[in-house]
Each structure stands twice: as C-alpha cells, then as structure tokens.
Amino acid sequence: MFNFSFGQHRCCDGVSRRHALRIGGTGLLGGLTLPSLTSLPSQAASILPAKVKACIFIMLEGGPSHIDMWDLKPNAPREIRGPFHPISTIVPGIQIGNILPRCAKITDKFTIMRSHSHRDNAHQTGRHRVLTGYPPSFADGQAKGMPFNELYPSIGSILSHELGPGGAVPPYVEMPNPLGPGGPGFYGAQYAPFTIETDPVQPDFEVRDLNIAEGIDERRFHLRKKLLVGAQKLGAQSGPVGRAKTMSSYYEKAFELVTSPQAKKAFRIQEEPEQLRQRYGLTSIGQCSLLARRLVESGCRFIGIDHGSWDTHVDNFTSHEKTLVPPTDQALSALIIDLEDRGMLDETLIVMMGEMGRTPKINKDAGRDHWSQCQTIIFAGGGTKRGTVIGASDKTASFPTTQPYGIQDLLRTICHLMGVDADKTYYTPLGRPVPIVNGGDVIEELLA
C-alpha cells in the first residue's frame, strides 16, 4: 500500500516537493514494508558494451543560476552580470564563478556543458521532461499524485528495468525526497524507486524499511516467514502461478533485503570516518552524496539526489552565495575526489543539473526567473571527458551559440554509457509503442 505525504520545500508553483513515498502496513511477515520493486525479475543486461556501472543524478530542483555559477558574463551590463565574478581554475582557460572555489580546484576531473537547452519553462512539466524525455499530459501545477509521471518511465526506472539488480541493494534509490516524476510509469510498480524517507544528515538516520517492525522479535519474524511458506503451498501442488507467484517472489526478495547484512551495511552511513563525513559536509546534499557512493559500492544502478530550493525569484544572489552553492560545491568536489581515490570514478557517472537555468536579466526583486533555453550541466566520470568545456552561450547566457543539446541527447548518452539500447521499444497497456528514448543523439564530444 502506498501512502503519499507532503512536506515543507516548495517551488513558486506552490506544490510541495517533499512527497514522501511510504510503504504502509506490516503485512503477513510483520516488517516487510518494502516497495514492490523488490519483486524485480532478473533482467539480462543489454548487449551494448557498458562503460558505467552506476549513475548518480543530482537534481538541483527549482533551477540553479548558470550565469552565476558556471557561465559568467563579466562584460555584460550590470542588470545581467550580477555581483559575482569569474575565477581561474586548475585548467588553464576555464573559469567559473567565485562562489565555487572547491570545484575550481578540480575542474580537471569533470566537464562543463554550457549549451543544454529545452523549451519547458516550468517546474513540474520541466522535471517530467528531464527525467522521462517525454512531455507530460498535464499543465504545470496540475500534476496529481506522486510520482507524477503516470505513463512514461523515468531514467532511474529505465535503468532498473533494463539492467536489474547489481547487488544486495535495490537498483534504483532516491533520497532524501522523491524526485517527483521519478516513477516507473507503465513499467509498473516493481520498477519504482526505493525512496529513503529520512535525511542522511540527521544524527539518528536509519532506513525504516530495512528494519523488522517494532514489537516483532527475530523468532516471531521467522515463524511468520515459515507460516507464509506453508500458506503458499496450500492448493498449489505445482507451485504458485500468476499473481500468487509474483507475490511469492515479492515476499522472498523483501525477506532477503530485510535480513541482508550487506544491504543494511550499505545504508549505514554512520560507519564512515567522521573526517570523511566532514569533507562531504554535514549538509543534506553532502551526506546524500556520501551515501550515494556507498550505494554504488553495493551495486545500485541509479541514485537520484533531490536538492532544493533553487527557485530564486527573490534575492537570488544571497541565496546562491550563502545557502545553496557552498554545500553543493563541497559535496560535488568531495564526491568526485572520493570516487577517484577509490578507483570508482571511471565506472560511475555523475550528472548534476536542474530542470532549468535562470533568466539573464535580474528582476526587480534581485532575483532571476525561469529560463530553460540555456542551462549548464556538469558531468564527471563514467566514460566522459575531463577538464573540458562543451558548448558556449551568447554574451548574455541567453541561448547557445554552439550545437544545443536537448533532453533526449542527455538521456540517450546516459543509456549509451550504461550499455542500454535507447531505441528499444515497449508497449503501453493500450498498445502504444514507446521507445526508451524518442529521438536525440549520443553527445559524442562528451565521451572520453
């Protein structure tokens, strides 16, 4: 049973992004309250050669200001350039904003794409396009339920569907909030993300769905497991079939996950050295990034990190300088360095972006508004180039002056790197053919 709750963070559309996905009820086994994603059938990996084992997708919800972070225009008029200034980085010729001093020291380890562009200038619908590659069936602000991609699967669910589990942990995890349109669409609930409801930065952080329900001791838990096995055999001499078989698989995999020391260990971020936790930053994005690295080590295919609120219509510069950018700068740089130190960066793709950028022109409230026509995306690891800038924008960072890359190009490139055939087509319950990615090209100049 799914129960959707609402929290505190909001964008200008007034819709909460803290829709926590909860799996209710104790069930027959008492405590197996895991999503039905644990009933995943084993999927054969694509025949395409995969350069990447996992993708960490950092979604800066609301829309980060590309012109203040990665694509500054110091010669533009004051009403466009803002108060920040470009600084030199470790790579000669590459400059980024002075509010990103940590990333400036490691630009030789990632790529800056300054020519991403699409035409959806809204939050809900823009995120839907970014995560699914398809237009939504609703107007912005009119999404119903969570997740709100009812038809088209998200990139996390696609990779879960195509690649299957890679270890003891679920193949698709999102934290600390649902990504919104990060659901499985017509693929079905078994490809939904495993959503962590609590924030890893909290001192008492634990993943509720990995624990046996309160009041159920280990002996009673195993007795219930034995009772379930016996019940499944009644009236089915040749074994369960149909829905009974599906539920049998669900319970078995849920049982394995709840009792798996490897799964529990993967989520136990408290085992990390305090010095390393400090290096990532004792912030939501910092600890989520550290936990993402642990999940990659345990075989997770796709980790979606939700971080907001970047919807800076008012006081854009104070928000970016004091609240939003410093923890992001620290978390991203620490994650890249940590993965490289462990020999994991080449097989882990990091993508950081928002659903849009911000307007070049500053508004009357010292803010910047929605602007999807030009945006910056950061790529690191996973078969992508290092120390490179891809694309360029005009003198006000309004539009790309080089080849613009769209959402289909981005998703097709992620699939390419992870060995998934983006042209593979599935059919909706109504018989409509839906390719994994509809159009686009692999971004060849991004590939190492």
Would you write up a description of this structure?
With 448 residues, the chain is of the alpha/beta class. The chain has a single domain (26-212, 262-446), classed as Alkaline Phosphatase, subunit A (3-Layer(aba) Sandwich). It has helices at 66-69, 78-81, 101-104, 123-132, 155-163, 218-233, 242-258, 261-267, 274-280, 284-297, 316-341, 407-417; strands at residues 2-5, 20-23, 54-60, 86-88, 95-97, 110-116, 172-175, 194-195, 302-307, 348-353, 357-358, 370-371, 375-380, 388-390, 425-427, 433-435. The strands form 5 sheets. It has an 8-stranded mixed sheet with strand order 8-7-9-3-10-13-6-14, sandwiched between helices. A hairpin with a 5-residue loop joins strand 15 (425-427) and strand 16. Helix 10 runs parallel beside helix 11 (316-341). The longest helix has 26 residues, at 316-341. It starts with a strand and ends in a 13-residue tail after the last strand.
Number of extended strands? 16
| Integer-rounded radius of gyration | 22 Å
Low-confidence parts:
1-8, 16-46, 242-251
End-to-end gap: 44 Å
- Average pLDDT number: 85
Which CATH C-level class is it? Alpha Beta
Number of helical runs?
12
Number of domains: 1
CATH architecture: 3-Layer(aba) Sandwich
